[in-house]
Amino acid sequence: MKQFITIFSLLLIVFMSCQLEPEQMERETVNETVEPSTKCINIDHVVGGVWIAPKLSIKLAGKEFKTELLCNTGDSRVGAFSVQVSYNPQIVQPNLLIGDKGVDTDVFVLPYGGYAVNILSISETEEILFISGFHAFGVEPSGEAFLFDLNWIGQSTGITKITPNVLDLYSIMYDIVGTPTGYPGAACIIDLGL
To answer: What is the second-level CATH architecture of the domain 2-191?
Structure first.
């Protein structure tokens, strides 16, 4: 069974790598760790778009790793937002020892900002992180503005998507930023190793 899972993982990697640029991938194996830039360059992200980077993570069960929540703010300074991030808790779970329920940032912090995180369990195979934050002066405008680190721990062998859904995205003037859109989630493969 372990060989089947490893072969399946390798086939999925080959398939996904045909669709991704090398800088969009992050891979961890038993003997080596290669972590290129986690920024996901994609001109298709509309202003108001929110996505997870890297697009593909291959990790070992029991290991900690992180993804980033990024946003195309256009010319706006994001002042307030609410985002949901869904995942399969049987495959990955937030690392509760880092930040607030696995969510960490140096952007939305006191004295000019703040954020809150809640976890909602939908079923055995779906949980949602609810993340809301504000900043009085806003996040610097960017096509790839960093919002948060999402810190995870691989739970068991399998594949899950970590998918954002934008509820609210406002500028410091309380205008809606672009077209708030959550892009399809990043694939996360948890492997037992070779």
So the answer is: Sandwich (2.60)
